[in-house]
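It would be a great kindness if you could assist me with a short task in structural biology. I am sending you one protein, given as its amino acid sequence and as whole-number tokens for its backbone shapes. I would ask you to consider whether the tokens describe a fold that such a sequence might reasonably adopt. The full record is reproduced below for your convenience.
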Amino acid sequence: LTPKEEPGATEQKHKFKLKGVPAKLRLRLIQDQTPDETTQRTKFEEWTFETETETLRATEPVKEVAVILYVDEQVVFEGQTDADGCVEASISPGARTGRVKLYPGTEKETEIPLELGCVEPVDEPPGVAKRLHNLGYNCSAETQAESEDLQMAIKEFQTDEGLDATGTMDQQTRDALKNAHGG
């Protein structure tokens, strides 16, 4: 680290933006192989996210398809999904919106909106579950109430952080989770 000084008036607020510390956005695009039979859908109209530990539906990666990834209305990736349906890009840590455009410029063109950095408060079970899920702990990101898999994930997180492994969300665990996840 190199110290740097910037002039600024006293008794005023000043904002500084750290450059060169991008976040990584990695998406895996998959298509549902079991569409709802009550509605007519094309094969790319329903999207879901897949975790490494569980697949909720029979899915197939969207392999080697032309894609444009926009984050805060700026193109951050233009190319193809890989053989596993993945796209990866460096983005601003403060990014909040995005969209993925598949098959750009063709009649198959499909756009998928993205909400970035949108996680429920860490005081609520879904916020805890999503943070633990994002950190790689084995619990569903869709947990709406304290469940057995959420308690096990909390206990595992507590063990990894050197905290008492109670499986309950106390203030010390909440603070460690905020610190580990980044908010």
Remarks:
- The chain is about 20% helix and 25% strand.
